[in-house]
Amino acid sequence: RYIIQSFIYFFYFQKSKKLEIYLYISIFWAVFNLLPIYPLDGGHIARSLGVLFFGPEGVRYSLMLSIATGAFIAFTCLQSNNHFIAFMFASFAYSSYEALRSTRGTYRPY
Predict the structure, then answer these.
(1) Residue 20 phi, psi dihedral angles, 5° rounding
(2) Contacts for 60-67: CB closer than 8 Å, 24+ residues apart
(3) Per-residue pLDDT at 4
(4) How many CB atoms sit inside 10 A of residue 70's CB?
(5) Residue-wise over 34-52: b if at least 16 C-beta within 10 A, else e?
(6) Percent of the chain predicted with pLDDT > 90
(7) Residue 48 · residue 56 · CB < 8 Å
(8) Is residue 7 predicted with pLDDT exceeding 70?
(9) Does 55 or 1 have the greater pLDDT score?
(10) Interatomic CA distance for residues 39 and 16, integer angstroms
(11) pTM over 0.85
(12) ∠ CA 49-110-108 to the nearest 5 degrees?
């Protein structure tokens, strides 16, 4: 309820461009943080859902999803010359790859 009231207040009653920019940044950051890449909150959610649905093997699945998502976004950012963001997502993908390598062989179903 308060979010909707804030949204109406910022967009209809305030004509300040700075407030609109802050609102867009906040929405972008929330969506960005929900990407299924492990250091972000979406990665933790993906890991929890993976363990919930697939058991201990779900950790590996979530790390594979994290690697694929991070590599895809890094490649897309390289194509559009956003080198800093590409490096950031490539480092996220690499850290997920290292975590996946360290979990290899540790799954014991019994």
Answers:
(1) -65, -40
(2) 60/100, 60/103, 60/107, 62/36, 62/38, 63/38, 63/96, 63/97, 63/99, 63/100, 63/103, 64/100, 65/36, 66/36, 66/37, 66/38, 66/92, 66/93, 66/96, 67/93, 67/96, 67/97, 67/100
(3) 67
(4) 27
(5) ebbbbebebbeebbeebee
(6) 57
(7) no
(8) no
(9) 55
(10) 34
(11) no
(12) 65
Q: How confident is the model at residue 86 (pLDDT cuts 50, 70, 90)?
A: very high
Task: Return d(Cα 96, Cα 102) in angstroms, integer.
Answer: 10
Look-up of token digits 């990665």: 43
Residue 96 token pair = 């997920």
From the list 39, 22, 20, 40, the residue with the least C-alpha distance to 31 is 40
Joined tokens for residue 100: 């996946």
